[in-house]
Amino acid sequence: RGKLIKLNRLRSAGAGQRGVSMENKKKRIFSGIQPSGELTLGSYMGAIKNWVALQEEYDCVYCIVDMHAITVRQVPGDLRRRALEQLAQYLACGLDPRKSILFIQSHVPQHAELSWVLSCYTQFGELSRMTQFKQKSQQHADNITSGLFTYPVLMAADILLYQTDLVPVGEDQRQHVELCRDIAQRFNGVYSDTFVLPEAFIQRVDQGARVMSLGNPLNKMSKSDPEGCVNLMDSPEVIQRKFKRAVTDSETCVRYDKENKPGVSNLLTIYSAATGKSLEEAQEIFAGQGYGVFKPAVGDAVIELLRPIREEAARLIKDKAHLESVYREGARRAGRVAQRTLDKVHRKVGFIAR
Ligand code: TYM
Predict the structure, then answer these.
(1) Whole-model pTM?
(2) pLDDT digit string (tens) for 311-353?
(3) Which one is catalytic: 136, 242, 261, 295?
(4) In sequence order, what are the residues at sequence separation of 6 or more whose Cβ sits closer than 8 angstroms to the Cβ of residue 143?
């Protein structure tokens, strides 16, 4: 009888709802991107490409994190437009609402609710050490809000609400995922097992874990640096212009050497991630060629990679009814899973059930 009760508990904990038998329960994946700018080649190679592949084998939840975006000032109309465009681009990249849950963070209020509880289990010192906070508070020195500071707690809530096993992100987000794990471990230690401990799931370096800026290859490619950054929706002409202007070095040899040739190494990585060829193959292809051949060839590879995505996204953005049905259904499904975790957390910390 004890066994049966345990089995029923496990079922109600979610295995049944995930649509798979308990013997081979799929692992849960969660990730998100801020609609604070256009989607970039960096976020595609570092994150979305991986997300698409993972849908086949995992139980995936992908989010548009608009609540994170307002940690720095946004123009409301632009934020709304970009959130919808981002959904169209997720679909165009191959995310499939029949396989994965796709939703908008502010539509699932459990994220904000769990975030408050977790903030009471996160140390001020831990948040002060976050690299992204240090960088962003320099960039936005006139507007360092408490939201910018507690950003990683909201991110921990995103991940922990879904009992996530793996978080596919670019290298720059590793520190946040590690903090999330520390918070989960602390909470579990105080109240017994409540959260699954998540792990960052990071792409191989030659497949785009950290795509660098074309203008300054010592910085990561980011939406806040328009010239060094390729957007998913850039036209072929714009993409080609950005690659032709990419910063390289005074040698003329196409060779991977991250220390001494960061620009060329970044372009080789992008070529390799865009074509699926290894870094060795890429170096062989361009052996003996000058940068005048190499740079436009990388541009062409990226144009071909992004062309179908751009065309499909442009088609999808016109179909507002379809996009609405995807994000509504996504929020409904996400909310169900999230509420289960939130109920458990509220019970454990001592709140009276509603
Ligand atoms: P965000 O919106 O800055 O970036 C989205 C994703 O793209 C990856 N990325 C890159 N990867 C390689 N090279 C680059 N140049 C590059 N630029 C961006 C990022 O690592 C990220 O995976 N805090 C997150 C959003 C977030 C989140 C979450 C992620 C909120 N809640 C929960 C995972 C789970 C962020 O700011 O990503």
Answers:
(1) 0.91
(2) 999 999 999 999 999 999 999 999 999 999 999 999 999 999 9
(3) 136
(4) 72, 73
